[in-house]
UniProtKB/TrEMBL annotation, chains A, B:
SUPFAM superfamilies: Dimeric alpha+beta barrel. This is Stress-response A/B barrel domain-containing protein. PANTHER family: EXPRESSED PROTEIN, PTHR33178. Residues 5-97 form the Stress-response A/B barrel domain. It comes from the Eukaryota. InterPro entries: Dabb, Dimeric_a/b-barrel, HS1/DABB1-like.
Amino acid sequence: MGGDLKHLVIVKFKEGVVVEDLKKGLEKLASEIEAVKSFEWGEDMKSEEMLRQGFTHIISMTFGSAEDFTGFLGHPSHIEFSATFSTAIEKILVFDFPTVVVKASA
Amino acid sequence: MGGDLKHLVIVKFKEGVVVEDLKKGLEKLASEIEAVKSFEWGEDMKSEEMLRQGFTHIISMTFGSAEDFTGFLGHPSHIEFSATFSTAIEKILVFDFPTVVVKASA
């Protein structure tokens, strides 16, 4: 698992956005593009509002190499999805980083 | 893997903080407390400054159940570490959410 790159996106959607449709789009994207090694999402329900500052959804994708990640960013499906996705967003944070796994799931 | 809870912490440290020491503390914490199922961290180097808003470090812990997570929060080692950690932080975001794994690593 060492050497993986993580693409972590944290968003607050605009009011009225149908999040379910975007999730479907993301799932399609992750399954279509082979370079996406793993994909998880989550909806924050538990942390204190003060600590999450209005952000609600977490999208986490893993790539096996920098080349895979670059390929993903430039993939026509990603470019198309990003255009739709960006219109739905009130605010966003993006982090791209090599993951350092200290303790792995058994 | 379904049913896991994720504890995601995103921070910007104060200037002058020795991040290496905090990492060691986190590693110790994750290895000491059995309830921590997996632990990863990362340092953002790649995303655009505008998109990461000054945050630099990502800490991600996974727990197998809500009970494990609650046990972790109340664990003396976690309480002690949190006291140190909080003095080192300029800003922080915390997300706690059930992970939905759409595509798992092969």
